[in-house]
Amino acid sequence: MCATYKPLTKKEERSARTGNRSVAPSAAAAAGPVGWCKDINGAAMQTRTQGCMRGLLVLTASRDGAPVGNATVKVIQEINLDPKSNQFTTWTEVSLVNMTGISSTTMTSYDEECWSTTACTESYGTWSGGLTWTAGDPHVATRTNTFSWNKVGGGEDRLDFTWQTSWSTPDAAVQAVPKWSNNGFDVRCDNKVGGNTGCVFPKYTPTLQLNTKKYPAAASYYWVLMEKLASHPGSEKFGKPLHRLADETKAKENRDKMCMLAVAEWNPNPAADGTSCDEYPFAKSRESGGQTLSSGKYCVQMYADKQTDGTWMLELDNNYPYPSWNEICGRAAVPAKQNTDAGGDLGRFTSEIRLLDDDAYYVQTGFEYCDIKSVCNIS
Fold this sequence. Notes:
By secondary structure, this protein is mostly beta strands. It contains four helices and 22 strands. The strands form four sheets. Strands 1, 2, 3, 4, 5, 7 and 9 form a seven-stranded antiparallel sheet that branches. Strands 6, 8, 10, 11, 12, 13 and 14 form a seven-stranded antiparallel sheet that branches. Strands 17-20-18-19-22 form a five-stranded mixed sheet, with helices on both faces. A hairpin with a 2-residue loop joins strand 10 (156-169) and strand 11 (172-176).
């Protein structure tokens, strides 16, 4: 008996169900921890803390070198990480899609290995549901495993997974042993942020969701720069994420050059409603203007102007040259509370999503579908 693992694309699933004696899994099957996994199309999807893989095992039984029958088995794998714990769970569901030419097939083993073994402790659960399927059999088998990262003080580890199963049938003498992996689902555990330990999928790029109602002037200013600057810093639309700068000393140097020291030449417009210097990209990002510029005076200069109806309008500051939009950064005079609140949300996001040094992230402001002229006078 031989077998291959195929990622479950829509085409593969449709093709598999055209086989003889195709079956639908029992409606009574228990749901896994990643609620959205079974209801979507695609072979591999993830968020920062949840992963979903769907695949087909195509089994072929042979006797005396000639194929005598086959079976197709669906495998759904869900990984549920905890950003505030060193423990996480995996859940697997196995079901028959179709079978022809053989009387039954049995899964004799299912190994889920976490590497490196010194960094990871495994606890296998028991299977719910039988591990032998006959033609037309609609039952499913599920199992939950628990993994623990063996914590390293102030450190981090990358954990990767391999999966291997063994299958047999009375109609063939040799077992099939398919094996697969997906490095897009490598797990990173750390205790470097937030004062705690947690695990995430580092290859997923998270998004910082800004609070438009809490700090409308600051959020709209970030969005204008993401749209207008040639570098589009933080924009998912343009595929230009920011990257965390974890070095506090360098972040302070960025802030000083952009806003705080005399070299910054910060001179907010007298018409500004708020004189707090808000730089973007953030000082704690590797895209900060302070990384390469000697002064924030070389950034785009704006200020927030509160309208009589309570809304905000951004204005270009005529104390400085008109921008070319090839600048790499911006500064804006905004109310201090809006500046502070936006910075606070960035700090909480860093901890909650376990953003380590050089991790990429996008910024979403809430203005993504607005007309720039509705928030900014750039004439």
